[in-house]
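Assemble and predict.
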Amino acid sequence: MKPSIAEEELMSPGHLACQGCSATISMRYALKGLGRETAVVLPACCWTVLAGPAPRSALGVPVLHTAFASAAAAACGVKAGLLARGDSRTQVMAWAGDGGTFDIGLQALSGAADRDEDILYVCYDNEAYMNTGIQRSGGTPQGAWTMTTPGQGGSRRPKKDLDAIVLAHHIPYFATATPAYAEDMVRKFQKARSIKGFRFIHVLSPCPPGWKSEPADSIKLSRLAVQTGLFRLYEVEGGRSRLNVPVAKRKPVGEYLRLQGRFRAMTPQEEARLQRRVDEAWSA
Amino acid sequence: MPELEAPAPSDPRVIVSGRSTAENLTGNWRTLRPSIDAARCTGCLICWKYCPEACVALTEKVPVIDYSYCKGCGICVEECPTRCIGFAPEEAA
């Protein structure tokens, strides 16, 4: 049988990710879509660690490690440097977590998007600061336990609407992706490669230690996030939005919540409220 | 525009990781070992596709798991549509 996505592997085994980490599956797919002529810029995030300490690297492409707030700015610099050397082919991908995107890197991201810099910015969103031990970020959903939102009720604030913030910059390409939908995800990276200007991909990336879920369930959770309607797979090109994976009959959000220990303290009332919010969002 | 030269590999300002993490044999993290039942495998390659370690090799029919790297996460076990991947404690394997 022929594989449904590119065979070439640019991510090496032996990386230092936890068991069942979907940030690594996401990186595999990203590089399958982008190919060898890619340079990766990593701010502080899980990938800083799991790419492996020097002199080893888990990526078969050049990597620049940079400070937390500066993923987008550093990527713009790398792109300018490549152009100065006469290389207009190499794609520059900033690859940041939700902490480095929703919170700490937001200013640099906004600046680069506003200038329509020719880079691809990817946020792999595992919905908290996982690398430093599960502290709440702007990407943490309401009701989720984290180390900084313990006890009944979990995180009080709703998840920041990053998609709306990024889309407000009128960029040429925006997409969401999650590894359960591998073919959709690889296609979006291929497409992003073919477009000039500032491109953004928001990847929902299940994290077993942070979500208190079984490592074996990472793909199942990624799929359930879409099938329950909590995470929408869509892309926006030239201002036109298109839903890529229509969900004919949404599953109850409880199927997604109950595989994750971080939602264990959620009350039935809170769950019903979340279900109502999802239903309203889809009927809008 | 001035001509820029690529720095020599010995340039102390450039940190180059020329080696791969494939030197790290992460298979010793594993407590449960997935094993594919060749008789029931349909060769759909879903185990290859979803492996976070990229340590399932494509072959003509039955994919081969590289136990030097497999951390035993069980995603392949869970996602296999024919449920033909066993998952037994490492001692019993």
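The beta strands of chain A are 38-42, 56-57, 63-65, 91-97, 120-125, 173-177, 199-204, 234-237, 240-243.
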